[in-house]
Amino acid sequence: MKTGRILLHLVVLIFLAVAGTLQAGNESNFYGPRAFSAGQVSSLFSDVWSVQNNPGALGYLGRNAAAVSYERRYSAFSMLAFSAAGRFKNWGTFGLAASRFGPDFFNQSRAGVSWGKSFGIASVGLQGQWYQVSSKDFNSRHYFLLHFGGIARLGEKLHFSGCITNLSQTKTGENETRVLPTVLRAGFSYQANGNLQLMAELQKDLDEKAGLNAGAEYRFAKNCFARTGFSTLNKTGSIGIGIGWRDMQLDFGSSWHAELGFSQSIGLQYLFGKPHSGKDAKP
After folding, report:
1. Which residues pair with 282 in a beta bridge?
2. What is the C-alpha separation between 274 and 152, in angstroms, rounded?
3. Rg of the chain's alpha carbons, rounded to an integer?
4. Residue 197: CB partners within 8 Å, gap ≥ 6?
5. Which CATH superfamily is domain 3-281 in?
6. Contacts 24+ apart (CB under 8 A), 214-222
7. Percent helix, percent strand, percent coil in the chain, to nearest 5
8. Residues 40, 65: contact at Cβ < 8 Å?
9. CB 228 within 8 A of CB 236
10. Is the pLDDT of residue 19 over 50?
11. Any idea what DSSP says for residue 171?
12. pLDDT tens, position by position, 78-123
């Protein structure tokens, strides 16, 4: 075997080890700079990124939207993600999502379709996701995953969420008994006042120890937000801002890991159509 091929395989192995740390198994568990900068709390927000983060929260989407984001994790690997969601009459809210993580020699790609609908104080949803792992010198692998989630709003101030990835218990291969990681998340948020939201979320891979994500979002001006948080699983602290203008929203976040360094996330969101009326339209 040539020296170049040996080095390539070594790099792939290192990437797999780091990617496992970054992605907590088969799921990054947070998409979009809003969740990125609020301690990676991802299941409690009802926005366009709920398509990936928690399809059950789509039932409370306040307005149709489309968004793109770019992340540079630990100054090493990049992720590009897209998400779009819209209400379709009384059928609920539907969403499309796609993402790609990693360089050309080894990467993970995802594409999914989500649905969510509110029923009074609660909203539930599902996502069907196609997941591909590709590398330069190995055959690509394709999987189908099913995710489920929900959120309950007990009044204006207190909200609870829960979701599970890989509900389908998809296996790693046709002749394999091992199942791709299944991740459970449960959290709550408290609206301390009209401008401050506090959030906490427990995250548990069935084969790993549990961890805590916690964050806060503060509106310091109309359509302007400051966010901060931490994650015990990834051992990171994070900060970020969001600025809205007309139908556009620009978000930026940065996080710090003591050993791996900085990560950054930036995203642009476009809102379209009229705000959804009624109690289901809470942002």
Report:
1. none
2. 24
3. 19
4. 189, 190, 191, 216, 217, 218
5. monomeric porin ompg (2.40.160.40)
6. 214/39, 214/41, 215/37, 215/38, 215/39, 215/40, 215/41, 216/38, 217/34, 217/38, 219/194, 219/195, 220/195
7. 15, 55, 30
8. no
9. no
10. no
11. B
12. 999 999 999 988 899 999 999 999 887 788 999 999 999 999 899 9
State how far the Cα of 269 lies from the Cα of 66, in Å rounded to an integer.
Answer: 6
**What is the overall mean pLDDT for the chain?**
86
Q: 182 and 164 in contact (C-beta within 8 Å)?
A: yes
Can you tell me the distance from the alpha carbon of 57 to that of 186, in angstroms, rounded to the nearest whole number?
13
| Residue ranges of domains in the chain | 3-281
DSSP characters over 108-161: EEEEEEEEEEEETTEEEEEEEEEEEEEETTEEEEEEEEEEEEEEEEETTTEEEE
The answer to whether residues 52 and 127 touch, using CB atoms and an 8 Å cutoff, is yes
Judged against a pLDDT cut of 90, whether residue 255 lies above it is answered with: yes
What's the token pair of residue 57?
């929260």
| Beta carbons of 239 and 253 less than 8 angstroms apart | yes
Q: How far is CA 127 from CA 23, 71, 90, 173, 207, in A?
A: 19, 23, 19, 21, 22
Chain centre distance of CA 216: 17
**Chain length of the chain:** 283
CB 117 within 8 A of CB 108: no
